[in-house]
Amino acid sequence: MLDRLFRLREHGTTPATEVRAGVATFLTMGYILFVNPQILAEAGMPADDVTLATALASAVATLVMGFYANYPFALAPGMGLNAYFTFGVVIGMGVSYPVALAAVFIEGLLFLLLTAGGVRTAIINAIPQTLKTATMSGIGLFLAIIGLKNGGVIVDHPETLVTLGDVQSPAVLLTLFGLVLMGALLTRKVPGALLIGILAVTLIAWLAGLAPGPSRWVMLPSLPRETLLAFDFSLLLTGKFVTVVLAFLFVDFFDTAGTLIGVGQLGGFLDDEGRLPRANRAFAADAVGTTAGAMLGTSTVTSYIESATGIEEGGRTGLTAVVVAVLFVGALFFTPIITAVPAAATAPALIIVGSLMMKGMRSLPWGQHDEAIPAFLTIAAMPLTYSIANGIALGIVSFVLVKLFSGKPGEAHPLMYALAVLLMLYYGFVAGG
User: Fold this and answer.
1) Which of 119, 121, 153, 398 could cysteine-pair with 114, CB 3.0–4.6 Å?
2) Which own/partner contact pairs does 5-10 have at CB distance under 8 Å and 24+ positions apart?
3) Kind of pairing between the strands at 301-303 and 75-77
4) Phi then psi dihedrals of residue 7, to 5 deg
5) Rounded to whole angstroms, how far apart are CA atoms 366 and 346?
6) Using one digit for the tens of pLDDT, what is the confidence trace for 216-232?
7) E-only strand ranges, 174-222
8) Does residue 16 belong to any structural domain of this protein?
9) To 10 degrees, the CA torsion angle through 365, 350, 286, 84?
10) 156 in helix, strand or coil?
């Protein structure tokens, strides 16, 4: 039955491999279950409701990805988008969270319409291969810097932005130990290398008292009371509301597009022309997740770059995504265990997956300046601005402008020119405001 549903043999995988990959993906992104409620609570939303909404919206979107698109990509409320929801919209613009949820709901419906019309797939197919390759490498660096930060290896600095952390601290030593352990296991081609590393570091941290273990093993989840269908459409036709919807729309689209391109290339899912088969179905997953999430009470749902961890573990079909979705639902009962996994355990996995995603850089045409410069800007902007969307936007705009002013306007797809104009308007008026 599983083979009929997910074509496991066709993709050269097994149920055991897919389950292992799903667990690895979930462990690297499970932090969203306690981080998202913390952030949205600042917007006045009840944390218990948001926890339930986060888990259920993630499960719904990831199930659609697994069963409908048959890809091992997981989805959840996006980091960055939740911060914009709270600090940019609710606090910054002075609107209530029901108004912000209504904007997320409208954004999800718009994405469903754009997906059904094939607009999102046409856009992603218009992006040149060099930028797609650069996107994978940029996401790799982004994952690495997230892992290094979470593990305390790098910290912020008022003068140099970042600097080396305290290498004598237990967290950093655990992170470095995890890096060595996972690297050695990968080199020896041990199945489940990343998952073994995550579990080993977690147990060491708990037993050594370097991280608190779970306070209890099981808990009954609370039910949403205040956030379910808590929409306020009173500002629907105002400029402020349209601005919010546009901001969610742009950032979500390019975050999802970048993740699908980068992680899809890592898993070998792109065809010879650099296109992602069944892209419409993959885009439908985050649109459904965003709409369902808004109804339940959370910010925009998007594809997660942590999916790369499961792909590196061998996940190749939607069964991996289904496992992640089941774990999100199960986590409602085992939240104390999930939240007790220390950052030092998952940070090494993110760093290693980031390094593996850099392999595409060798195929970039570094001798062709009109191709290399936009590719480099895409790669550099993602970790340095902490945003996949910013990296892709800078890459698209620079690609079009360099081609145009170097006398090669025909080498950019017409949709790329339209995208460049829209992005310049967005960053000039919406994001800049």
Assistant:
1) 119
2) 5/67, 5/318, 5/319, 6/66, 6/70, 6/317, 6/318, 6/319, 7/70, 7/317, 8/317, 8/319
3) antiparallel
4) 55, 55
5) 33
6) 788 777 667 899 999 99
7) none
8) yes
9) -100
10) strand
- Which domain, by its residues, includes 383? 2-216+250-430
Q: Under a CB-based contact definition with an 8 Å cutoff, are residues 320 and 108 in contact?
A: no
Nearest to 56 by CA among 45, 64, 67: 64
What lies within 8 Å, CB to CB, of 269 at 6+ separation is 71, 276, 277
| Single pTM value for the model | 0.75
Amino acid 153: pLDDT: 96
- 193 in any annotated domain: yes
By CB neighbour count within 10 A (0-12 exposed, 13-18 middle, 19+ buried), where does 156 fall? Answer: exposed
For residue 155, the surrounding DSSP H or E stretch is strand 154-157
Token reading at 365: 């045409």
What is the rounded CA–CA span in Å between residue 47 and residue 30? 16
Which DSSP symbol is given to 215?
Answer: S
- What's the rounded Cα separation, in Å, for the pair 46 and 105? 19
**Angle, alpha carbons 123-125-131 (nearest 5°):** 95
Q: Compute the residue count for the chain.
A: 433
CB 149 within 8 A of CB 166: no
Write the secondary structure of 314-332 as one string of H (helix), E (strand) and C (coil): CCCCHHHHHHHHHHHHHHC
- Residue of 399, 361, 403 whose CA lies nearest to 377: 399
Sorted by sequence, the CB contacts under 8 Å of residue 293 that are 6+ apart come out as 53, 54, 57, 60, 61, 77, 104, 108, 299, 300, 301
Type of residue numbered 53:
A
Q: What is the pLDDT of residues 33-81, one digit of tens each?
A: 877 887 888 899 988 788 889 999 999 999 999 999 999 999 999 876 7
Mean pLDDT (the chain, rounded): 88
236 is a domain residue: no
Chain centroid to CA 193: 22
The count of structural domains within the chain is: 1
CA–CA distance, 406 with 428 (Å, rounded to integer)? 24
Q: How far apart are the first and last CA of the chain?
A: 52
Work out the angle at residue 171's Cα, subtended by the Cα atoms of residues 169 and 175, and round it to the nearest 5 degrees. Answer: 120
Asked if 392 and 258 touch (Cβ cutoff 8 Å), the reply is: yes
**Paired tokens of 159:** 């003068």
DSSP code of 238?
A: S
Q: Rounded CA gap, 137 and 262, in Å? A: 7
